[in-house]
From TrEMBL:
Pathway stated in the Swiss-Prot or TrEMBL entry: Carbohydrate degradation; glycolysis; pyruvate from D-glyceraldehyde 3-phosphate: step 4/5
Origin superkingdom: Archaea
Name used for this protein in its record: Enolase
Gene that this sequence comes from: eno
Catalytic activity: (2R)-2-phosphoglycerate = phosphoenolpyruvate + H2O
The family this protein is said to belong to: Belongs to the enolase family.
């Protein structure tokens, strides 16, 4: 037995931030042991790799997958052989969407393998992932006002984001964004009452709004009141598949139905009136062409694909061919292993596409994606509002990394 040989693998059920069950996997060598968690999304792309659950939503089938199958496939392997271990799970599963073993089982195991390897080597996780090259701090995308499937109000747009760009350090950018978040909460309490400062799934505030314009105006007012106009910009995750009427080929938003051209005009109009630099999933998940049309119209905006790509190299290549987006969301659980995530990330980078390492609405306190974003030198990280422990755990890990290693902030280069 070597110091790096996997000696045990164990899965168990835990709770995510919505109180739903998910899976945590422990991977052990003689001198190191670490765990990885599988997050889960409320708004999912139809091409995502499949979670393994029973009819009641339990993750026990995924736990069984780890304890009765994956465990015996990877015990004895070198924990540093991330690609070999991930490929073993892919081969054991044998399906195109992880439907046999479950993507929740494979990604939790894959993350646990990487964390255990870094511990065994005495390295920070981000150094293990990205090597000892020069690393930079990603720009945080903070979802401070929630709508869509993440909230209980009438807003169709799922996330209203702030993007702190013009700052010298990550910590300055984050704390400025926190000021805006608090000001937004004050504005909502004054206008609608404190009862409406309740939080959505990702920690953003969920006021009683139903019109996109009202939400944008509130966020922009909070930015200006906080003194950060011109330093903090705005973004949106439309998650438009959730309000797309496939039968009529229209988008049902703000109380009216909009066709493709109406939606193109809608996005163009709001980007002319608000400091929006980022729009995610503006059209339904199969509409590569209208993504491309919007990106051509809004050349200075980062149009981003999430449901469009679901961290799949195959669909990303289609988007590259059509010029659909300048940005991609990177969610490891959408594809099921870190090796496939790395391949997706590298493909985006090689084609000058901005990368956004992202959480899910159903998160755990595991802060792995903070290290992932720094290790890969991602342009952005998207991990919710600066509230709720499962979100702040990522921000606090990033603050820790910056403080210890004195890394440069990417916002200065984007601006």
């Amino acid at each position: 037995m070597t110091d790096f040989e996997i000696t045990d693998v164990k899965g168990l059920e835990i709770l995510d931030s919505r109180g739903n069950r998910t899976i945590r996997v422990f991977v052990k060598t003689e001198y190191a042991e670490a765990s990885g968690d599988a997050p889960a999304g409320a708004s999912k792309g139809s091409r995502e790799a499949l979670e393994l659950r029973d009819k009641n939503g339990s993750a026990l089938p995924a736990v069984s997958s780890v304890n009765n199958f994956i465990k015996y496939g990877i015990i004895g392997m070198d924990v540093r052989n991330q690609e070999g271990i991930d490929q073993t799970m892919i081969s054991m599963d044998g399906t195109p969407n992880k439907s046999r073993l479950g993507a929740n089982a494979t990604i939790a195991t894959s993350i646990a393998v990487a964390k255990t390897a870094s511990m065994a080597l005495g390295e920070e996780i981000f150094e293990y992932i990205g090597g000892h090259r020069r690393h930079e701090m990603p720009i945080p995308l903070l979802n401070i006002l929630n709508g869509g499937l993440h909230a209980g109000n009438g807003l169709k747009i799922q996330e209203f984001l702030i993007v702190p760009i013009d700052f010298d350090t990550f910590s300055e950018a984050l704390f400025a964004a926190v000021d805006v978040y608090k000001e937004l909460k004050n504005l909502i309490a004054e206008r609608y009452g404190k009862i409406y400062t309740a939080l959505g799934d990702e920690g953003g505030i969920s006021p009683p709004l139903s019109n996109t314009e009202d939400a944008l105006s509130l966020v922009y007012t909070a930015i200006k009141n906080s003194g950060y106009d011109g330093k903090i910009f705005m973004g949106m995750d439309a998650a438009s598949s959730d309000f797309y009427n496939i039968k009529e080929n229209v988008y049902e938003i703000d109380g009216i139905k909009k066709n493709d051209e109406n939606m193109l005009d809608f996005y163009e109009d709001i980007t002319q009136r608000y400091p929006i630099i980022y729009i995610e999933d503006p059209f339904n998940e199969n509409d590569f062409d209208n993504f491309s049309k919007l990106q051509q119209r809004l050349k200075n905006i980062i149009v981003v694909g999430d449901d469009l790509y679901t961290t799949s190299v195959k669909t990303l290549k289609e988007g590259i061919k059509k010029g659909s987006t300048k940005g991609v969301i990177v969610k490891p659980n959408q594809i099921g292993t870190l090796t496939e995530t790395f391949e997706f990330f590298d493909t985006a980078r090689e084609n000058n596409i901005k990368t956004i390492v992202s959480h899910r609405s159903g998160e755990t306190e595991d802060n792995f994606i903070a290290d992932l974003a720094v290790g890969l030198n991602s342009d952005f990280i998207k991990t919710g509002a600066p509230s709720r422990g499962e979100r702040t755990s990522k921000y606090n890990r990033l603050l820790e990394i910056e403080n210890i290693y004195n890394l440069s902030y990417r916002g200065r280069f984007l601006h």
